[in-house]
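ARCHIVE RECORD
Type: protein–small molecule complex
Small molecule: 2-amino-3-ketobutyric acid
Source of inputs: curated submission
Record status: active
Notes field left blank by submitter.
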Amino acid sequence: MKKDKILVIGACGQIGVELTLALRKMYGDTNVVASDLREEHELLKGSGPYVSLDVMNKEMLHVLVIRHNITQIYLLAAILSATGEKNPLLAWHINMQSLLNVLDIAKEEGLDKIYWPSSIAVFGQTSPKVDTPQHTVIEPTTIYGISKFAGERWCEYYNHRYGIDVRSLRYPGLISYKSAPGGGTTDYAIEIFHDALESKAYNCFLKEDTYLPMMYMPDAIRATIELMEAPKDHIKVRSSYNLGAMSFSPKEIGAEIGKHVPGFTMRYEPDYRQQIADSWPGSIDDELARNDWGWKHEYDLEKMTVDMIKNLKQ
Ligand code: NAD
Ligand code: AKB
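STRUCTURE (tokenized, with ligand):
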């Protein structure tokens, strides 16, 4: 077992639950402190320490870090794209101040490592749509994307200026069945499974030909851990790495699900999220992640669909 003491902030969210459980397996249950604003998630109960925390309260966060001898922080608390558009100032405030609180405490306490996820949402209309490269025009149009891009600059700044070992991934849309998603544009690709199994029908809030980069949660958890475990000198990108696995449209995932759910039908009623999706890439070039620390995805659309349906049926 490793000696590190980890704090996961936003541990009850879609990624947090699975990441916390994976980290507890690696580092030992008592060495991973889960925290969130919400009540402890059912799947976390009894698996390790849980603390109620508002990451916006810097003093409380600082005390927690000192009291638990924390050496690494995974900051997952954020307002996602669709929710962010409903209250842009709140999204900006939470997404930025949470990161600044964590980075500053990392500097003051000399923490070993920080993980903070960015998103494909950093890209905008003026970025190339296909195989969007790591370094390209970045002009996000959503408040979520703007806050992620600013966050990336802060991460790189704290690394270059203060030597903080901050690591980050630009996740694509993540698909999972254990913990519900938190208000994103890519959430349709999760809802579709639930509705297909419950009613054999899905009314999609995006158009049928909207391609977006996606990833199955086991790949995302493994990518996060592999990035954090990689030797320091392998991490060349200190803003955030592009990360890819698959790309599909609502029509394509619908057809794949239809192979397992006879009679499954789809309707399309695009709403305000269509505009968000239209501003994002259709696919991602993640060559640097693959070269620098050996990233390799396992799940494509077909393999993920089989696994999602098997698990949701149980
Ligand atoms: P989520 O919304 O499911 O979870 C976020 C968690 O943070 C929630 O449990 C929420 O209660 C908690 N939280 C919110 N405000 C808080 C506060 N003030 N103090 C403490 N906790 C607070 O989000 P997620 O999908 O798990 O995403 C985690 C991170 O990954 C976010 O930064 C998100 O932008 C990023 N990301 C997610 C995806 C995806 O598809 N899920 C894709 C790209 C990037
Ligand atoms: C969202 O849709 O907001 C997230 C993301 C891609 O960052 N899933």
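CURATOR ANNOTATION: The domain at 174-214+246-313 is CATH 3.90.25.10 (UDP-galactose 4-epimerase; domain 1).
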